[in-house]
Amino acid sequence: MLVEQQPSSPDSSPRHECGVCGLFQHQDAAKLTYFGLYALQHRGQESAGIVCSNGEKVTIHKDMGLVPEVFTEEILAKLTGHLAIGHVRYSTTGASTITNAQPLLVTHKGTTLAVAHNGNLVNSIALRAGLEEQGSIFQTTMDSEVVLHLLARAAHKGLETALSETFTALRGAYSLLLMTQDSMIAVRDPDGFRPLCLGKMKNGNGGGWVVASETCALDLIGAEYVRDIAPGEILIFRREGLKSLFPWPEQDSHFCIFEQVYFARPDSEIFGINVYQARKRMGEILAREAKIDADFVMPFPDSGNYAALGYSQASGIPLEMGVIRNHYVGRTFIQPTQSMRDFNVKVKLNPVRSFLQDKRLIIVEDSIIRGTTGKSRVRALREAGAREVHMVVSCPPTRHACYYGIDFPSCNQLIASEKSIAEIAEYLGLDSLHYLSLEGLVEATGKERRQFCLACFDGNYPVAPDLSFHKNSLG
Ligand code: SF4
Questions:
Q1: Does one domain contain both 353 and 428?
Q2: How far is CA 195 from CA 140, 189, 220, 432, in A?
Q3: Is residue 2 part of a domain?
Q4: Which spans in 352-474 are helix H?
Q5: In Å, what is the CA distance from 100 to each residue of 64, 186, 319, 336?
Q6: What phi and psi, each to the nearest 5 degrees, are found at residue 121?
Q7: In angstroms, what is the span from residue 400 Cα to ligand 1's centroid?
Q8: Is 51 in the pocket of ligand 1 (CB under 6 A)?
Q9: Are residues 364 and 397 in the same domain?
C-alpha cells in the first residue's frame, strides 16, 4: 500500500542552523569528521557532507538526510586522507536541495577549494550581483558560494592576501572551514556570532588538529579543547604549522545569546560559558523574578529541562516530569485524521494524566516563537486535569527577526511582535506568563551585555541587515 508521508507541522521553536567540523593531519580525518558531525547533528538535519584530501586527490560525499543516513561504512572507507571538513545543514538561505548541501567544492586553475559555512551573510545578494555582472556563474542559491568566488578571483595574490581581502568584504555571521588539497582554514567573523572551537587530538589518538562548531564534538572524538577561534581570526593549518591572521580592526564581539538559550548542546562550552550551567542559572533567575506558587515545576522535555531544574532548586518547588517524551518520533510521520486534535504535539509528548489531576503547574519553556505548539501543549495539560497552568520562559519575548543565520519566522509570525504578554497568555490559555528579563538573561551567562547580540529581543542589530533582500526572503 502506498502512503503519502508529510513533514511534521512547523514547531513553535526556532529552527537549528548549521554545524561544521574539520580534521587536519589525522590518518582517519574523514571518519573522525563523521563522528564530529554526529555530535553536531542538533545544529542541522537536512543534509550532511564531508570532503577530504590525501594531499593530492580530493574526495567528497554529501546527501540529504541525517549523518548516519548519509554515510555508510563503505562510503567512509572511500573518503581517505589526512585532511577533511564536514557540514550538517539546516537551510537559512537557499533552498533545501542536494545542490545546496555542503561542503561546496570548486576547482579553479588547478586548485581545489571547499567551504563549509555556519551563519548568514547580510551582504551576499549585493556581492553576488556584482560578481554575476562580472561574469561569475553560480551553481547554488547559497550565500556561502560567494566566498568561493571571491577567493578564486583573488587567488593570484597569494593565499593570505586572498583570504584577508575576501573576508573583509563579507558582512554578517560566518564561522566556517575552508579546505585546499593540503591546507585547512578556519574563519570566524569579527562579531563572533556563531561559535567555533579549536581542539587537538591526543597523541594516543593519532595527533592532529580539530575545529568544530561546539566542544561536544571534541569530546566525542577524544580531542582536547585548546581555545576558541577568536572573533576576527583566520587560522591557517599547513604542514609547516599554524598561522593566525587578524585582518579586521579590533571591535567588540557580539555572540549570539540564543546559542545559550536554545541552540547549543548543554554539554558544550560556548563563548567560554558552560551551556548547562547557563541554562540552569536562567531558571534560577526566573524563579527570583517570577515568584509563582504552584505544586510543581515541569519542563517540556528536552528544551526546558535545565532551566526547570534551576527554577525548582531556587524556588523550592519540586521538579516533576509531568509529560513523557516519545524518543522514537522521526522527522516525518503519517498524518492522522482531522479529528485527532493536537496530534503533532501528542505524538511527541504525552501528559501523565493521573499525576496532573487537579495540580497547579509551572511549565518551563526556553522560548515562544509562533506560539502554536505552546497552545496545543497547554490544552493537553488542561485536558489531563491540571487546575492551574503557569508558564515561565527562559528568555525575553522574541520580537525581532534574526539576520545572522537563525531561522526565525518573519516578524509578523513572531507572536511577541504582534501581542502583549497578557494577550499571549490568553492566546496560550495560561493562568499567567512570565519571561526572563534581558538583564536576567545576560546575568545568567556571567558576561557583559555589550559582548552579545541581543537583536531578536531588543532590535539593536550589530551589523545592519540588507532589508531589501530580507523583505523578499523572510517576509
Ligand atoms: S538576532 Fe537573536 S538569534 Fe540572531 S544572532 Fe542575534 S541573538 Fe542570535
A1: yes
A2: 25, 10, 17, 35
A3: no
A4: 353-356, 372-383, 415-418, 421-428, 438-445, 455-458, 467-474
A5: 10, 21, 44, 32
A6: -85, 135
A7: 9
A8: no
A9: yes
261 CB near ligand 1 (under 6 Å): no
Is residue 200 located within the same domain as residue 305?
no
125/146 Cα distance (integer angstroms): 9
Give the three cell numbers for residue 411.
516578524
| d(CA 69, ligand 1 centre) in Å | 30
Please state whether beta strands 58-64 and 83-89 pair in parallel, antiparallel, or not at all (unpaired): unpaired
DSSP SS3 for 275: helix
Give residue 271 CA to ligand 1 midpoint distance, Å: 14
| Ligand 1 binding pocket includes 403 (Cβ within 6 Å) | no
Q: Identify whether residues 229 and 284 lie together within a single domain.
A: no
Helix 124-133 vs helix 144-154: crossing angle, to nearest 10: 50
Distance 40 CA to ligand 1 centre (A): 19
Could you tell me if residue 265 is inside a domain?
no
Q: Is the CB of 122 under 6 A from ligand 1?
A: no
Q: Are 6 and 70 in contact (CB under 8 A)?
A: no
Task: State if residue 121 touches ligand 1 by the CB under 6 angstroms criterion.
Answer: no
Out of 18, 21, 395, 411, which one is annotated catalytic? 18
- Whether 18 is catalytic: yes
Q: How many degrees, rounded to 5, is the angle at CA 114 between CA 137 and CA 265?
A: 120
Query: What is the Å distance from ligand 1's center to 336 Cα?
Result: 35
Within-domain flag for 144 = yes
Residues 390, 362 within the same domain: yes
Query: What range does the domain containing 121 cover?
Result: 12-251
Residue owning the nearest CA to atom 4 of ligand 1: 402
Q: Is 401 in the pocket of ligand 1 (CB under 6 A)?
A: no
- Please list the residues that pair with 244 across neighbouring strands: 235
pLDDT in tens, the chain (475 residues): 333 333 333 344 555 579 999 999 999 999 999 999 999 999 999 999 999 999 989 999 999 999 999 999 999 999 999 999 999 998 666 667 788 899 999 888 888 899 999 988 999 888 999 899 888 888 888 888 899 999 989 989 999 999 999 999 999 999 999 999 999 999 999 999 999 999 999 877 778 999 999 999 999 999 999 999 999 999 999 999 999 999 999 999 999 999 999 999 999 999 999 999 999 999 999 999 999 999 999 998 888 999 999 999 999 999 999 998 888 776 555 666 666 666 777 778 889 999 999 999 999 999 999 998 889 899 999 999 999 999 999 999 999 999 998 877 678 889 999 999 999 999 999 999 999 999 999 999 999 999 999 999 999 999 998 765 544 333 2
Q: Could you tell me if 247 and 274 lie in one domain?
A: no
Cβ count within 10 A of residue 302: 11
- 205 and 302 share a domain? no
Are 225 and 305 found together in one domain? no
Domain count, the chain: 2
